[in-house]
Amino acid sequence: MAYAQGDTIEDGHYNGFASDINNIWGTGSGNSGYGNGSDISSVSAGATVTATQWESLLSRLESIEHTKAHQVYHLVQLVLVIQLHI
Fold first, then answer.
1. Radius of gyration of the chain from Cα atoms?
2. How far apart are CA 58 and CA 9, in angstroms?
3. What is the pLDDT of residues 43-82, one digit of tens each?
4. Where are the domains of the chain?
């Protein structure tokens, strides 16, 4: 599945993306999920995915990326501090 500018985003693909993002950002299940309660809504079968819905999904993906990058940065800082004290 590859998309190019101007392509129609299929409802099933969008819902799959939303589900994956919700499992990371939202409450998830088991040991997954950041614990945030604001999930990306799915679209009904046959419905058109709007630009606003797609932008919300991409924005949430950016938030996940920034959160992860922030965590990795702090982990690297901690490792550097530990190495300096060894």
1. 17
2. 13
3. 999 988 888 898 888 888 888 887 776 665 565 565 565 5
4. 11-84
pLDDT in tens, 24-33: 888 767 777 7
CB 24 within 8 A of CB 48: no
- The CA distance from 74 to 49, in Å, is 37
Report the pLDDT value the prediction gives residue 86, as an integer from 0 to 100.
Answer: 45
What span, in angstroms and rounded, lies between the C-alpha atoms of 34 and 45?
Answer: 28
Q: Which residue has 């499992």 as its token pair?
A: 23
Phi/psi at 24 (nearest 5 deg)? -85, -50
Distances (CA, A) of 45 to 10, 13, 14, 52, 60: 9, 11, 11, 18, 22
